[in-house]
Fold this protein.
Amino acid sequence: MATEHSKAAARIMIAPAVFVLLVWMLVPLCMTLYFSFADYRPLRATFEPWIGFDNYVSFFTSSSFISSVVTTLQMVGGILCITIVGGVLLALLLDQPMFGQGIVRILVIAPFFVMPTVSALVWKNMFFNVDNGLFSYLYAALGLQPYDFLSQAPLLSIIVIVAWQWLPFATLILLTAVQSLSSEQLEAAEMDGAPGLSRFWYIILPHLSRAITVVILIQTIFLLSIFAEIFVTTNGAFGTRTLTYLVYQRVLESQNIGLGSAGGIIAVILANIVALFLMRIVGKNLDN
């Protein structure tokens, strides 16, 4: 058991790292909070240190705010549906004995290590390009007109791009959960004559519930800040402007630092509300 002396020594040793992390996080957050109450537009040489909550009111009442929140939720919901369903199916498939199982697992997990900008560029130019994309060649081979995914189905296109990158993460977590399932339960159910769908619904899926909840929590926290894929593919056009991208437009494109900072604080608050809500769900699930 650790003594009081060893505990004090441990606190002293980790104090510098904790201090650096706090400064690293708090300084930008405090500056953003300060600028959110100021009228700061560098290109117009405008700086008024205090205008109250005008920036927050302007951001909330903007016609783009509600649509960006809805778009963000639609993206997150669509990506979660694809990654959870696909992750469960891939986890069950990869758990089966097959030739080259280790290589197959590495290939399935590999997309998770691709940078978001790279994956977005690959999908944009290799698959979704109207003139030279793979899907356009397939459409032409079937005698159909090429389909411009990024302008005719932009939201679905970005959901597919991001889901492709996050699917390996969900598969890895769910595969670990599948492998921890006792084979005796499945064998007993099979001997009792339970069909495969019933075994999945009443044995495998309840066993995966905790892993699915953790995947939803972790992915949601990261997916609320989708930016690179939108920037590379649509630049926020065609109804793909999320809350994060709206803040970017207000700060860099409009050069309104105060308004963008207010949007950033609002985004942080909304993300924390969602995270706390999901944490409560995770806590209840894990307790059960």
